[in-house]
What we know:
Elements: E1 2-6, H1 11-28, H2 33-36, H3 39-42, E2 48-53, E3 61-70, E4 74-82, H4 91-105, E5 110-116, H5 120-124, E6 129-137, E7 140-148
Parallel strand pairs: 4-5
Antiparallel strand pairs: 1-2, 2-3, 3-4, 5-7, 6-7
Amino acid sequence: MKLELFDIRDAERLEEALAIRLRVFVGEQGVPLELEIDEHDRGDPETVHVLVREDGEAQRAIGTGRFYPLPERRVQIGRMAVLPEARGGGAGAAILAALMTEARGRGFREAHLDAQTHATAFYRKFGFSDDGGQHWDAGILHQSMSRPL
Length: 149
């Protein structure tokens, strides 16, 4: 797998990331389009996005994620998505590891995320723990989680 970090100024990669998110979140999970693409995609150059590409000749983008800064040297990780046909091959783990490594390298101390409740076990494997209650977002139950970087 190949990982590529970028920001909103890289329109080509951003388009690839949004296509994955639209397929997964809007197409599969029914998230309204107006909730999926937000200010961190449209105008926040501090947001760090990542694409993971499959190995091989095509090097097709198969997954994405992002983080953006919060107060007190924290980041919010989110919009992690892997195409259905690529799930189970380590792309999600690679995305999360890349985002945490990049955030740590930029001097951030803590990572927060809102995990869909079916995915909390995945995040716990990476040291995330519950840091608040559950809440509904776009019709999907989420769990607030965090971990030191």
